[in-house]
Amino acid sequence: MSLPRNTTILIVGAGPTGLASALSLIHHGFNDFVVVDALVKGDNSSRAIVIHAATLEALDVIGCGDELVSKGTKITSMNFDTRTGVLAHLPFDTLKPYTRHPYGLLIPQTFTEHVLGQKAASLGVTVHRPHNVVGMKINADNTNLADVTFEDGQVITTKYVIAADGARSTIRPIAGIDFVDPKNGPGHDSTTLAQLAPADVTFDNPELNNFNFRGVLSTNNFFLCAPLPPTFNEYLAKETGKHIEERIFRVACGAPVEEGPVPHSPSKAFIQSLVDRFGPLDLSSDPSVNPSGKGVCIKEVIWSSRVRTHSAIADTFFTRLPSGDSLKPEGAAILLVGDAAHIHSPVGGQGMNLGLRDAVFLGEMLVKHVKATESKPLSEADQILADFVAERRARALEVIGFTKKLLSVGGMKDAIVAWWLPISKVTLRDWMLWMAGKVHYLRRQVIWNMSGLGRR
User: Fold this and answer.
1) Among candidates 335, 333, 338, which has minimal Cα distance to 312?
2) Which of 183, 258, 356, 362 is the most exposed place for a label (fewest CB within 10 A)?
3) Mean pLDDT on 16-43
4) What region holds the FAD-binding domain (predicted)?
5) Torsions phi, psi of 255, nearest 5?
6) Is the Cβ–Cβ distance between 213 and 227 less than 8 Å?
7) Could you give the C-alpha distances from 35 to 148, 158, 302, in angstroms and in order?
């Protein structure tokens, strides 16, 4: 497909953050942009599965919240247990005074991307595929513009580039922006969860249809199981032609590092082993262990992957393509959103949520900047973007710190607290989580932090 030769804004990446950026620009009355993506088709993996209240409120602003809510499943509580007993029941209803979305919305990322893509298409947005960026340089005739070159030799000249092209962004290194762990909060030496194995699976027990969101804490590991919405089955049938009758569940578990790296696409046997060793006993495939007296086996793996739980953040989310004169604020504006700007552990389901909020809020700021450049010097107009990205980067650092804390709790090493407190850290963690489930203030704080309402 031939690309437009010129545009004011080029959005690189048509995942959830790229599409949300486009929808936000349209909502604020701006339509002079082009969206490109390196993939022939949108991502077919589910990856992130929850949209929190603060993100739904942001998506409401650009007219996408209700459509996503209609496709997803509302989770009204989270249960955290040991393998054999209950630790804490954390209800979302404590959010009712603060939001119209007092719940977490379970919806796979690929489905979220599909819904946002349909919304964008209905508004006239075309995603140009597959077009992979391979270079970017100052335009010879106008130093405020960039010529972005693609693998097939085509070039787009643009004033702004939104890099929504993921953790392996091609735009970020071209712009000379570093991407490193901020080293805030607990480090990897405080957790055993250096790698995770997520998968979407079906089970051979139909009684599990009423299974709720559950996290299971065990010594040195964390396991999660969540039911995905029935609409996801319908989506897969339409997109792939494959009809899956059983409820699809997301399972995710830490994979012990000493046992080697997680395979690229873990097999059913690999995932079943993690469920049997670290999941709740009522999901065990061993009848002698399962309290029901019957084993529950994985029937089919729909999708599986591996995740490293490292963190990184870009030095800045806004820069200008260097023009050779460091004293002048020239060169096209480069802005980073989503995984191109920040990555961290998926524990707590914060990554896509933060990226979507970045994208929605960026649309408004970009339109303000475009208008400001019509009447103000570029250095003065740029303060709009500089202030915005400083705030978004601060939010990202908060989220990275939060996810590191969650990771250290979920993968807490089984060691003695201190010589003067000779009890296991795991025992202390379980006791504190049990207390959190009993005390209203603590329950509210946990859910409030998960919701993102305090760090929009």
Assistant:
1) 338
2) 258
3) 94
4) 7-209, 334-399
5) -110, 115
6) yes
7) 13, 12, 29
